[in-house]
């Protein structure tokens, strides 16, 4: 199995695959309202974003994510590695629950923090159903256990087919505080589920 790396920890290629069964679309005959996908315009980072980065925060685990633009307000659970080296995922039955990779960077400290959540479950849309509708410049808020809120600004929103997923670009180390929010996307097949992933790229621009 090909492995992806978060920092120095190898993680299996099914890191986000377990999010992508498409249970709701499967049970509804392919679905009449598939989740939105990002446009090509949202995949081009804003050159000014590099100048707007905020100073890194001390490490602190997060416990909630809010994305007001798409009405996300969800608790976060810690995600560990499974026995085969892949990242575990939140329970599919809890549609308003996301997770973060707790052995990696905490949101707000220098490096790349990872948050993942389901796009749907058997009952319908889940926490990150509308992730592909985000626009550059959108704010993402992460509540942290130290009482601070890390504020991230979206730089780009991209969709990748599973066979072309850019591991280093998504999971690679960063010299400033960055965030990736990941769910499923890239088209849907009844036989295999979603064909890829929507990835939001963001960086720290403030805190409170």
Automatic annotation (TrEMBL):
Basic and acidic residues bias locations: 43-53
CDD domains for this protein: Sortase_F (cd05829)
Domain of life: Bacteria
Keywords: Hydrolase
A UniProt-annotated Pfam family: Sortase
Entry keyword annotation includes Metal-binding: no
InterPro entries reported in the protein's UniProt record: Sortase, Sortase_dom-sf, Sortase_F
Region of interest called Disordered, as start-end residue ranges on this chain: 29-64
Protein name: Class F sortase
